[in-house]
Design brief:
The protein has about 180 residues and is of the alpha+beta class. It has one domain. The protein is about 35% helix and about 20% strand. It has a 4-stranded antiparallel beta sheet, sandwiched between helices. The mean pLDDT is about 90.
Length: about 180
């Protein structure tokens, strides 16, 4: 059975930005991912300046959900379709995990999604239509230029891992957050 742990850490936005934000390069990776997997409203390109978002807050609460797999799950080799189903199930869990972040929001705080938005089965951006859930859609750290893999490794001591060759990784980590203490 999988176990989910919530990890949090509060950091200064200015320090985080200096150490982990490179919008120019990270946004290129986000756009490449979209070209392969489909476009999404919470990924670039945006019609706003990402620096304006970072410069509007003093603090960032990084909120990560670490899913540890059991020895039995780790020992099993999955067929491609089976592994895809399992990983999609965890992707769908992000919506429930986001409730923890939504609960922290206020007029002075903005939640950050746990990776690419999956609120809809297919994002309306693919059809050049407006977002169907703008009241729930949030931007993830990586879409705002954060080098999430590097930040998680440095700040929490965990490397981001991925499933491969029919095997689950030791753990999965979904990273979101909360920008707060509005300037």
């Amino acid at each position: 059975m999988s176990e989910i742990k919530k990890l949090t850490l509060d950091v200064d936005v200015e320090e985080f930005y200096k150490n982990y934000v490179d919008f120019e390069n990270v946004s290129k990776l986000c756009i490449e991912e979209q070209e392969m997997l489909g476009y999404n409203w919470n990924y670039p390109p945006f019609e706003f300046d990402v620096d304006d978002v970072w410069n509007s807050y003093n603090k960032l609460k990084i909120i990560a959900f670490k899913i540890d797999f059991s020895a039995e799950e780790l020992a099993h080799t999955f067929e491609d379709k089976e592994l895809e189903y399992i990983l999609k199930r965890f992707e769908r869990m992000k919506v429930k995990m986001m409730n923890d972040i939504y609960a922290l929001e206020s007029e002075d705080a903005l939640g950050l999604f746990l990776g690419k938005c999956n609120l809809c089965m297919r994002c309306t951006r693919e059809f050049n239509m407006p977002c169907k859930m703008p009241f729930k859609m949030r931007y993830p750290l990586e879409a705002l230029g954060a080098k999430v893999d590097e930040a998680v490794n440095d700040l929490f001591g965990y490397k981001i891992q991925y499933a491969k060759d029919g095997k689950l990784p030791e753990y999965l980590i979904f990273v979101g957050g909360l920008l707060y203490d509005k300037k």
